[in-house]
């Protein structure tokens, strides 16, 4: 059994797959407690792998995103095998402090070490997409992680996209990318458009 915060149908709002229809499986629980996290860790319902596959299959999208919380605490090769058997392509969004299970088709690592210290040091060394939060103060690093794509995402400090502090962080992020073109800009388009 796995503890699931929610399962919902939406568009991927960040990174390489922005705008793609996806079913999100948000796992409850995390091994980190980031001050800017938007996930409710107090709730969650127990679901079997069969229950999860049945719930995501109710939607048209064949792209499922395992997210959290921290999905590596619960997602395993048995779940990914069941999702593949049901015809899903599987993406995972992780903080990188634990290895991903077998069967992940697209792995996004978003390290939190700059904000939380050594306890959040990533152990994953290879991913499809490295997405680092940019707050304008913390030095940008790739943490020694090899990725197909490198993204910087302005850290939403609360107050929404129109907030003056968020606007300054976004401008500084763009300036950094202009001087360091290996990095690409990732905006949280789900927040900009008001979708879940």
Automatic annotation (TrEMBL):
Q: Which CDD domains match?
A: Radical_SAM
Identify the residues that bind S-adenosyl-L-methionine. Answer: 36-38, 69, 110-112
Broad enzyme group:
lyase
Q: Could you provide one GO biological process annotation from this protein's UniProt record? A: tRNA queuosine(34) biosynthetic process
The Radical SAM core domain, residue ranges: 17-196
Q: Which reaction does it catalyse?
A: 6-carboxy-5,6,7,8-tetrahydropterin + H(+) = 7-carboxy-7-carbaguanine + NH4(+)
Cofactor-binding details, from the entry: Binds 1 [4Fe-4S] cluster. The cluster is coordinated with 3 cysteines and an exchangeable S-adenosyl-L-methionine. Binds 1 S-adenosyl-L-methionine per subunit.
Question: What pathway does this protein act in?
Answer: Purine metabolism; 7-cyano-7-deazaguanine biosynthesis
| Molecular function GO terms recorded | 4 iron, 4 sulfur cluster binding; carbon-nitrogen lyase activity; magnesium ion binding; S-adenosyl-L-methionine binding
The residues that hold [4Fe-4S] cluster are: 30, 34, 37
Query: What EC number(s) does this enzyme carry?
Result: 4.3.99.3
Q: Output the SUPFAM superfamilies linked to this UniProt entry.
A: Radical SAM enzymes
State the family named in the UniProt similarity comment for this chain.
Answer: Belongs to the radical SAM superfamily. 7-carboxy-7-deazaguanine synthase family.
Assembly: Homodimer.
Function comment? Catalyzes the complex heterocyclic radical-mediated conversion of 6-carboxy-5,6,7,8-tetrahydropterin (CPH4) to 7-carboxy-7-deazaguanine (CDG), a step common to the biosynthetic pathways of all 7-deazapurine-containing compounds.
Protein name stated in the entry: 7-carboxy-7-deazaguanine synthase
Per the UniProt entry, what species is this protein from, by scientific name?
Answer: Marseilla massiliensis
Per the UniProt record, the lineage of the source organism begins with: Bacteria, Pseudomonadati, Bacteroidota, Bacteroidia, Bacteroidales
């Amino acid at each position: 059994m796995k503890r699931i915060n929610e399962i919902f149908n939406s568009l991927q709002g960040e990174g390489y797959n922005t705008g793609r229809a996806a079913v999100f499986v948000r796992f409850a629980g995390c091994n980190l407690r980031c001050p800017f996290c938007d996930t409710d860790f107090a709730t969650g319902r127990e679901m079997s792998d069969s229950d999860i596959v049945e719930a995501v299959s109710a939607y048209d999208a064949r792209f499922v995103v395992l997210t959290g919380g921290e999905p590596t605490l619960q997602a395993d090769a048995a779940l990914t095998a069941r999702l593949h058997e049901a015809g899903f392509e599987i993406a995972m969004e992780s903080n990188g402090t634990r290895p991903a299970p077998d069967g992940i088709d697209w792995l996004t690592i978003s390290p939190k070490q700059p904000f939380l210290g050594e306890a959040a040091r990533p152990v994953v060394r290879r991913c499809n997409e490295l997405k680092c939060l940019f707050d304008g103060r913390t030095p940008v690093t790739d943490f020694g992680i090899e990725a197909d794509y490198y993204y910087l995402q302005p850290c939403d400090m609360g107050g929404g996209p129109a907030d003056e502090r968020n606007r300054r962080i976004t401008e500084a992020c763009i300036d950094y990318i202009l001087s360091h073109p290996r990095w690409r800009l990732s905006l949280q388009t789900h927040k900009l458009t008001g979708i879940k």
